[in-house]
Design brief:
Strand content: 15-25%
Helix content: 40-55%
Structural class: alpha+beta
Shape: elongated
Largest sheet: 4 strands, antiparallel
Number of strands: 12
Length: about 290
């Protein structure tokens, strides 16, 4: 029991609408979530380490519109309706059954719930909190890719986004194509400093040191794109030397789950690799050469 339920009037409306929908329900459209398949492969003891099993009676609310998105739920058995509003304003967004996942987008986006989920019949759900979900995806690349494929399909169907892998490549191309604009947009204080001290910098030798994971990529075009990031600076004043070096890719330090998933896909597809890519010999050589210039 969760303590929250629909009003009897709203529940009657929901059940009547659901009964009518059964005549047109296309069972071929029901897909089993890769997360469900993963949990089904675990022993009950291991499953309990990653999730909490909760039973719902008809009319009980799993989560409500506006609630914090702090967990997602696997429908182990039963059926759940996704709705907005109640009574006169009731809108049924869809139904989810055994094998499907609900509430994942609010968890990924770290936003409040956009709709209410309510049990239509006795149901058993596995609640997975955000921390456990993130740990599972970071530790299991194949699960992360499968989840992304599912999320991408769901996003495409609602015209909100394309697949995660496409987003990675398009965002990368966009950032490189508009490198100068990106520099100005994300480092306004640095650009303002250059403008304010342009005269002093033109009389004083200075160098720039840039660390970016793109420098570890195999594609030379992308690596060259990084050097364009300094073009707004060069327009105002010329450094005597510019150092561009790869950094360290440590997914545990990436705060955003969406970005970690994007990085995970790019690693799996060979765009770059996780680990420390800093070339200390090259950095030392650059610094040694620089000593005679400034």
């Amino acid at each position: 029991m969760t303590g929250r339920s629909l009003t009897p009037q709203t529940m009657d409306q929901l059940l009547t609408a659901h009964a009518s929908s059964l005549h047109t329900l296309d069972v071929s459209t029901i897909t089993v979530s890769p997360l469900f398949e993963f949990f089904a492969s675990l022993s009950p003891d291991v499953r309990a380490q990653w999730s909490t099993e909760i039973q719902y009676e008809p009319g009980e609310i799993v989560f409500g519109e506006g609630d914090d998105g702090d967990f997602l739920a696997l429908i182990w058995s039963g059926q759940i309706a996704i709705i907005k509003g109640q009574s006169e304003t009731l809108t049924i967004l869809g139904y989810r059954g055994s094998g499907e996942v609900i509430g994942e987008m609010a968890v990924i986006e770290k936003q409040s719930r956009s709709a209410t989920a309510v049990a239509l019949e006795p149901s058993i759900l596995l609640h997975i909190d955000r921390s456990s979900f993130e740990q599972l995806l970071v530790a299991n690349a194949s699960l992360a890719m499968s989840m992304m494929a599912m999320l991408s399909a769901r996003l495409r169907s609602s015209d909100h986004a394309r697949s995660m892998q496409t987003q990675v490549e398009q965002k990368m191309k966009h950032d490189l194509a508009t490198a100068g604009e990106v520099q100005q947009r994300f480092l306004p204080e640095a650009m303002q400093f250059v403008r304010d001290h342009r005269m002093e910098l033109s009389r004083t030798p200075f160098a720039t040191f840039t660390v970016c994971m793109t420098m570890a990529m195999k594609n030379a075009q992308y690596r060259k794109g990084v050097t364009d990031w300094l073009e707004p600076v060069r327009v105002l004043v010329r450094p005597v030397s510019e150092g561009f070096f790869a950094g360290e890719l440590n997914l545990s330090k990436v705060p955003s789950l969406r970005k970690r998933l994007m990085f995970r896909v790019s690693i799996l597809t060979g765009v770059w690799s996780e680990g420390d890519h800093r070339d200390w010999e090259a950095i030392h050589a650059w610094a040694t050469d620089l000593a005679g210039k400034i």
